Amino acid sequence: MSPELPTLMRRLFPAGLVGWAAVLLVLFVVLWTVPPSLGSGRLLSLATAAVIIAIAAYSFDFLFAYMGLPSLLQGSLLGVGAYTTGLAITRASMNFWVTLPLAALFGLVVAAAIGIAAVRARGAYFAILTYGASAAIVTAATNLTALTNGSLGLVVFFDAPPLGPVHLVGSKGTYYLALIMLAFCMAALLWVRRSTFGRILLAAKDSSQLAASLGINPVPYRLLAMALAGAVAGLAGPILLMHQRAIEPSQFDVLFSFQLLIAVLIGGTGTVLGPAVGTIILVFLPEVLGLSPLAAQVANSVLLLVFITTMRRGIVGSIGATARRLINQRRSKGPQLAGR
Amino acid sequence: MAVAISLIYSLARVVNFAVGQFLTVTAFALFLLTDVSGRNPLHDHLGWPFLLAVPVVILGMGVLGYVLEAGLFRPTLRYPINGFVVSFALVSIFQAGFIQIFSTNPYGLPVLFPGKVTVAGAVISYERIVTIAVASISIVVLWLFLVRTNSGRAMRAMAESRESCILIGLPTGRLTSQAFVAGAMLAAVAGFLLGAAFPFDAFAGQALTLKGFVVVIIGGLGSIPGAVIAALLLGFVETGSTALGFDQWSAVVGVVLMFAILAWRPSGLLSGIESSDV
Fold first, then answer.
1. Are strands A154-155 and A246-247 parallel, antiparallel or unpaired?
2. What is the pTM of this model?
């Protein structure tokens, strides 16, 4: 995956969206063909996990980069989605496919309910509020034992029934589904960003006073964005359940949301590919280095500290900025806007 | 105790998620230095007396506070949102370290002041009295420092507007360092009191951090009287919910209280500083 490619494509396709569509299509084809060809062992399992986490990372970055809302809730919303599907299947014997929109809906509703109170705050205050909300969700999932089986968690064995001609089988099936979901969520979020709605969000982030003077009250827009991101995070939940087969409340605590933040900041916040690149590093680096989960937790945090003090734009953001600077120098045009 | 935690935030101005971990570090460090029961995973028998260990650890935490401020928080000062990211990374690192060294077992400090006294029918241990006394004294000392001394006044001014302080020539960098060191040492005192009063484990810091933030937000960021009131309020509500049989829900109770108060008064009970845009 060559990160210069996006910048190149942007030069080739000034319309932007067309270029991105082409890049993402190529990437998608590569991701679609390569990991499953490596067999269905540990590597595929990690790739599946990375794709699922990437979905949640995009939902985090959607709020963070475009609204300055660092939500420590997204990981728990993924949990909400996973539990929705798990309970719907075990308690109500529902069809897996029916539970997907249900999981998105629950993620949306929970995010919106918390957002009503939280979106009036911004920055670190918003982080504190969502931290609290995340802790409340995990505590509720742990203590409502009658519903959720408490800290023992849920173990769900199910196969997604055939959906028309599509029949997902085994770990490769899970991987394909995760990839399709990622593509769907990325396309949706990208589309929203480019829409009038997305531009209003960006305006409200950069200068809330200016936005207000134009008669735009940013708060309902933020709430809407939070609900949308909640739906995306919720949608990742069922696939995680399908991948892991077993879930428990504590895996969705605030440290999981923090992993998303690490992925986004390492990869580059506000870039199209950044969260995915960051997630890949986050998932595969401990594996490559052979670290224990605890050592991996430390390594990820240290990596984050290194990035935040020396390379604030993240990998994709820095490469993009360097490439733009080189192009600008060659064309000796005036400085362009830095890429956020 | 929650009061002591919360004061640090109003002082340092950086939303520091790692303070809860500072408390846990203190408690574990004291345990390592003073333990005589042989449960020490690093060293068999240091067995320092408490009177020596407590000041050493408090000073050590001050140094740690300075190192972290100079090394990690100062480069992020221009982008305040990154300060919270840095502190969260520290939380994650500390917690992994605790689990590595101490596993997930609960630990406790020995009872320092045995005995109890009966006041109007209620039995209170000396330990509790000492805890309350030390906490109150710390708060009063901090309050006096902030209101009566020049450094304290400068810090409060800095909390209002860093730019104006730079304009009138205050050494803002040094003041921030001082605030961090003071905050870390205060956290050490709180950690000592906490370790003496309750058992603690590798996850204690996370719960403490949340509690501290609930208190700060309810009280109004930057308002010390607000923090005191909020801490008492939270204490009452949590005790009440425990008495009603909801003791596992104490985290939820605090968060619900926080959201309820915010819906009613968006900048906290006693708003010190505008809490919207940071």
1. antiparallel
2. 0.79
